[in-house]
Structure of histidine kinase:
Amino acid sequence: MVSFRPRTIRGQLTGGLVIFEILVLAVLSLVVIREQRSELQTRTDQRLEYEASQIALQSRTALEGKAFASLEEFVAAMRGSPGVHAVMVTDLAGQRLAGDSGTDEAMELTPTERSFLRDLSKPAIFWGDKGTREAVAPVRIHGVLQALVWIYPDDTQDREQLHSLLRTTLLSALFGIAGCTLFASLMARQIARPLGVLTRATRRMIRNPEDTAAFPIPISSSNEAADLTTAFNLMVASINEQRAGLNDTLALLDSMLANAPIGFAFFDHRLRMVRVNQFLAGMNSLSIGRHLGKTLDEVFAPGAAQALHTAIEQVFADGEPVRDLEITNETPAHGRMGAEMRSWLANIYPVKTETQTVRWVGMILSETTERRRADEALRKSEKLAAAGRLAASIAHEINNPLEAVTNLLYLIHQEQKDSPAQPYVELAEAEVARISVITQQMLRFYKQSTRPARAEVCALLDSVLSLHERRAAMLQIDIDRRYCSEAPLFCFTGEMRQLFNNFIANAIDAMTPGGGKLVLRVQRVRQDAKTGLAGIRVTVADSGCGMSQETRRHIFEPFFTTKEDTGTGLGLWVSAEILAKHHGRLRLRSWERGAGTTHASQRGGTVFTMFLPERLEHELHGEPAPLQTAQSV
């Protein structure tokens, strides 16, 4: 396909200006002609209405006096008026009473004209069947319609006026286009001249990059072209200055693009960082500027720095990469006080120049902290599961001899009622009964039911507390039970025990070692404020150390824990899943100890409030609802 687009600035500017003016001329002509035609049409209609009214008045006078000859003369005189082609007077049947009989209009009325043979109240202007404007006016004698006056206008004069206006517009536009084209050509020449000089010098440099004799290019103007020429001169000078180090820079950039998809750093022979990316800088919580020129000992912990130092020296020595080097480093903890241990996987490789000598050593770091934490938490959870299975097995095996001991104590109690050792027998029976309760609770935790059943929430809480009472007593923790009389709930009893156990165990941990108060409240709710459902509200409150805002944001995430030595980070995550399965709702309030709180105890604390709606069996087997949580300080 042939393109007619001009290739030069002069041609593009001139052609674009001509096309623009032609478009403007066309639009302007259309608007002017349209407005002029509308104005002429309005004037013609007003003239026709006036002339029709005058002829109707004269016709009424002539028809009253039966003066048809004078009417004929008046009509003939009106036909010679400016803008009038023909005039005719007819009766209500359409028969001509006066007018030029030699015209086509006088011979017979058209269907459109006959539609006006009715009781007209005033003159009317309309479009005839031949596409021309016509006027009709009623002739009334003593209030009775007797005849109609028809006027056929002559638009020759109007067309001549429009043609004259169009010729004037076109002539003015042609003069304007010629003047603008000449002006645009002169301006384009002034613009294109320095650009032509710049183009020729550029082509000369392309043919021979070492030939810079044409530079600096002389500047002959003071416009944007001069700025462009100045910038080009500076660019050529900068290229000459940087050509010596171009190959090294390209090798460095190619290595960065090809081998550093994550965090990277480059080291010189003195083991100083010459370049790092933002990802690696973020790993150490330091800015890029605080890495450049630094040694490994100034950025990493001693253990990690020594491992990297040895590996980088090895790469400089033999030119072979070191892969999958695991390192650990202590960095500031995000959002928390102190520091945290983080781990990375390092891949160290040589960056060689054209002479195959190792100029730099590159290092790629990928963080493995979260993966190691997940693996560690998984190992801990597996250990806990194994311990649970072992505890359940032991509890099952203890039940048999325990039952025998219970029977023997009963027989001793019955046969030696008067013995001085009777109180000791009763105490032994009580302790054996307590051991039996503990083993039964352990079995219930392990052998969880797969079907929901109706359970008493207060009894579930007491069964969980029986596992923690001894520890709570040793820690001087006061347990305050505030139960309602009855709190039945249709639920998975094993999961509900696990839920309560997680919250109670965390509360006791929060009050270790200073002791405190643990409040357990169970209430029946007729209608929950958020869901509108009936159910059970369970509150677990402690006066422990409380939680920070950062901790509250993450407590329901898997593997998040504040107990680095003993915690797995799965307890509250599992609890949230259990609540969601039971369509429950959770509210958390907490204030840190010593955080400037105005709480009366000044000790801090945490309150978990759970709402468990009453559900039918088929509802609990459905999809879990998203857990609704609310937090406040």
